[in-house]
Amino acid sequence: MAAALAVAPAAAGAVPERIWVAPRGADAGPGTKARPLATLHEAQRRARRALRSRPAAGVQVILRGGVHRLGAPLRLTAADSGRPGARTVYRAQPGERPVISGAAAVPGSSWRPFRAGIWRARVGDVATRELYVNGRRAVRAATGDYPAGFRPAWNGGGDASGIEYLPTVAPEGLNPAAWGDPAAWRRPADVEAVILTQWKMMTVPVESVTPPAGSAPGLLRMVEPAWTNANLFRDADGEPGIWSFWQVTRLENALEFLDEPGEWYVDRGSGWLYYMPRPWERMRAARVELPVLEALVRGGGTARRPLRHVDFRGLTFRHATWLAPSGSDGYVADQSGFRLVGSGNEPNVIGHVREPTATPGNVSVRFGRDVRFVGNRFRQLGAVGLALGTGSQRNVVRANSFVDVGSAAITLSGIATADHHPRLPGQRSVANRIAGNLVARAGRGYPDAAGIFVGFSSGTRVIANTIQDVPWSGIAVGWGWGLLDPGGFPGLPGATPGMWGDWTTPTESGGGLIARNTIRRFLGQLWDGGAIYTTGAQGTSADDGLRIVGNTAYGKRPGAGGNTFYTDGGSRYVTVSGNSSYSNPIGATDFGPPPRAGDPLPYPAAPSLGDGLPYGSDSGGCVTYGDISYVDNRWQQPPMAVQMALANIEYALISAGGLVPYSPEGYFSVCPYESGGVSYPTNLRYAGNETYPLAP
Predict the structure, then answer these.
(1) Bridge partner list, 365
(2) Do 40 and 184 sit in the same domain of this protein?
(3) Where would a tag sit more exposed on the chain, N or C end, judged by fewer CB atoms within 10 A?
(4) How far from chain centre, in Å, is Cα 95?
(5) Which of 244, 270, 288 is at the close of a domain?
């Protein structure tokens, strides 16, 4: 394999054009090793010229060590394409470590003491959602969790809709005096309200503050359409439910909230950056990076003119932000990094909309063919690390490391109509390979994202990756919960066949392989996910379905409810064989704590009454279709069998005998579904599975 991925030689007798770039180069120079250029953009211009004059030779842009700070993204099109055997290559000088950065450095000389352990530096009118100090992600200034006196109030989306509040200020109240009264916030429009609930995360900016009047509470009026979208997922009574903005987990992004070492806030109105140093940090000697670019590399071909035969090798992509969540759409999660934007989304009881919008990549390629990312480092990014979008064909992502990424580390293909039922051959995503990568601490800003997400694609290989310390699922595959498959299987509670269209042909999903990956310490923050999570039909039969083979999963957060191998709504044609799961005990439901004692605006406590029920197993799903085989796996170590038996009793008592979610083999489902006399999931096959360690 290594030989196959080596940089292919140019045509016989043709020497690739070589262009060097260095942070201290000069764009007026020749671009040689001795006299390199200064910018990637000038190197790209000369590379294009070389591709036009000698297309059979190929071109190599060689980056010297140091930080290459971009003023704008490097944008690649079909004009940057190479050829088989004459590729376009962006690579590191051997033995050196170039960094492609989208940040502005904040020099030590800019910092001055402010007050109470807080320092500040003048940075001007910059927009960012990230800050890094001495190589470590700083924390946006935030309140404590579940602040008292804040109660979301939908009220039909009218003028009284928003977050009601009553000041509760210490020592008499429950919140610190610094932020307990929103009417005293200096810049309320900077503030965002956040909720983490089950597998979702939402953040909605404040528009304005109306103080209390007499006994009537005040109101945080929230921006639109984010607030409407955050309350689309309704209960049976038509009111915002447990997947809407029913509770405030915390408030973020105000100077008043800055009270813990490692927190920061930037005041765009005054141009000041505020930071509370950790005890060992000395600001005048600190390395402070303020990401300002939202993209480092954007590859954008088309279905008919894709970007072809381009390599990125040995580079470090570091320090980029993503600003959309600060705008009118906020960040309203559907699932796995896809979010609701704009107006016109319909309220529903299923917790999802048909076509949410993907989180973008700080490095991205759309309509890329034979594009390779090999041996690179993706560090300290604010969105998706690497997004390979619609029309990804025969691309390779190998031996890279993704550490400290805001959303997913890697996404492949998408979930739009062009992805699941493409009209043009060039829109298909086919035969891509994600192998031998390290993913660690993804989802730092948006914990609903999986470490690796694969949308609608065929022949995808996800092999021998290590994924660790992720807040939700390790690997997520598919979309649609059966509603985009032929027949429109309603793989969500409350769904109806055909509600997302009448699809008569299969989706692009098929022939996938997830093999020999190690997934550890997953579900670290949210719950109702898994090490490997699937949804929708993964082929048209077991022969061309998804194979999940030889993976190892361990170290799930003990309290997190979820299934290690989670074949969720509509999953069909999946073979789970030869995998190992250990130290993944059954978790529990957790819809958030009840209101604090003495809260002057207690929110409904009903969701919290569902907390603590056993939830999950090594295999399971909700409204799963079936045709799934579990063969020769090692799992369900004691005491899971005992826990499952007790859980069955508990659920049966709660539902008066009508719900027993654990099968004898350990399959977990709290979403029974029957149609036409058929009970789902159908055709579940268990064979040769053993407990780990082996029972005596």
Answers:
(1) 299, 388
(2) no
(3) C
(4) 33
(5) 288
594's enclosing H/E stretch is none
CA distance 67 to 86: 28
Alpha helices (H) in 13-126, listed in sequence order: 40-53
Q: State the Cα angle at 66 between 61 and 67, rounded to 5°.
A: 90
- Buried b / exposed e along 519-543 (16+ C-beta atoms within 10 A): bbbbbbebbbbbbbbbbbbbbbebe
Handedness of CA 441, 443, 447, 453 (dihedral sign): negative
Residue 610 lies in a domain: no
Position 82 in a domain: no
CA–CA separation, 580 vs 632, rounded Å? Answer: 9
Residue 602 lies in a domain: no
Under 8 Å between Cβ of 326 and 127: yes
Residue with tokens 């579990």: 630
Structural domain count of the chain: 4
Same domain? For 523 and 577 the reply is yes
Q: CA-CA-CA-CA torsion for 424, 427, 428, 433, nearest 10 degrees?
A: 150
The pLDDT of residue 694 is 59
Report the distance separating Cα 91 and Cα 625, nearest Å: 46
pLDDT tops 90 at residue 92 = yes
The phi and psi torsions of 300 (rounded to 5 degrees) equal -135, 85
Tokens describing residue 385: 């690390």
Is-cis flag, bond preceding 55, omega within 30? no
Q: How far is CA 582 from CA 213, 557, 577, 585, 612, in A?
A: 56, 12, 15, 8, 22
Query: Confidence band (pLDDT; 50, 70, 90) for 441?
Result: very high
pLDDT exceeds 60 at position 2? no
447 and 542 inside one domain: yes
Residues 135 and 121 in one domain: yes
Closest CA to 470 of 495, 492, 449: 449
CA angle 238, 248, 218 (to 5 degrees): 85
Strand partners, 135: none
97 in a structural domain:
no
Task: Indicate whether 323 and 263 sit together in one domain.
Answer: no
Question: Which whole number is the average pLDDT over 317-333?
Answer: 98
Asked if the model's pLDDT at residue 156 lies above 90, the reply is no
295 or 236: which carries more pLDDT confidence?
Answer: 295
**Does residue 439 sit in the same domain as residue 412?**
yes
- Helices and strands in the chain: count of H runs, count of E runs: 5, 60
Domain co-membership, 315 together with 169: no
> CB count, 10 Å around CB of 128?
26
DSSP secondary structure of 245-307: S-S--EEE--GGG--STTEEEEETTTTEEEE---TT--GGG--EEEE--S-SEEEE--SSS-E
Domain that holds residue 278: 107-141+258-288
Contact between 670 and 651 (Cβ < 8 Å): yes
Nearest to 192 by CA among 446, 379, 523: 446
- Predicted confidence at residue 157, as pLDDT, reads 67
CB neighbour list of residue 30: distance below 8 Å, 6 or more residues apart = none
* Residue predicted with more confidence, 255 or 236: 255
Average pLDDT, the chain: 95
Question: Chain centroid to CA 440: how far?
Answer: 13
Q: Are residues 476 and 398 in the same domain?
A: yes
pLDDT above 80: residue 299: yes
Task: Give the model confidence (pLDDT) of 169-188 as tens digits.
Answer: 877 789 999 999 999 999 99
Average pLDDT over residues 519-541: 98
